[in-house]
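Quarterly update from the structural biology core.
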Amino acid sequence: MGSLGGDRVLSARSPQVFLARVRSAVLFLIPLSLLVVIWSFVVNVFEINPRIFPSVASVWQAGVDSVVDGTLVRHIGASLWRIAVGTTIGLAIGIPLGIAMGVIPAIASFFNPLVRFFSVLAGIAWIPIATLWFGYGFGAITFVIFNAVFFVVAYNALLGVSSIPMQVRHAAASLGAGRVAMIFEVLLPGALPNIVTGVRTGMGFAWRGLIAAEMIATDRGLGYMLFTARDFYKTEVIVLGMVVIGLIWLALDRLLLAPLERVTTERWGMVGS
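Predicted structure, tokenized:
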């Protein structure tokens, strides 16, 4: 009977959830659509020089041409590969360090000031020195992305572990949880909401750092596409790149990061009733 009742509740809620998501998507798209309408109106009415700002039609045509010849796909693929590698390295090092800072006071007292200091510099500020260390290419850009993610995630992991009440830790220890079990069954799950928030914030910094680094440190990527188009006064390609950059980030944030953050906070009881 309990299962049947639960199925009925889920069945009743499903249309409501679907309609709520559709409504949210429509409300989200309205400002973007309005922006395109205003853009088209202003360019056509005031007959703006295409070298200053392109029309919607020319940007659309530039997108079609770049998809057909494969250049846009190559630039997008290069940018996404760099963001994936840099983010993975940042998470692999930042999460363990943040948890260690939350568990061991000596590590926290040493690394906390450093993490706070460098979190302000993460991303774009590292581009000049990254190119000196790694040259122009994959290494420098990956290093910039790593810095954008690492410090933010490490600090948020520390905050997550610190927010777990000592009563919970003592209760787990009294039930026989050893150090490994304490980390993987208490501290890490409890810190996940903060960690995921850190990932979302860090990837936002990383995406901006990636585009900036690609303008000067590589020969492929969305940032490179923007920068080289400027030399030939191809404003339609510049605006196309800006649109693609924004749409990719919106897709990553709304389809991956935001749902992951919501599910994580709900799963670990961080949402109030």
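The chain has ten helices and no strands.
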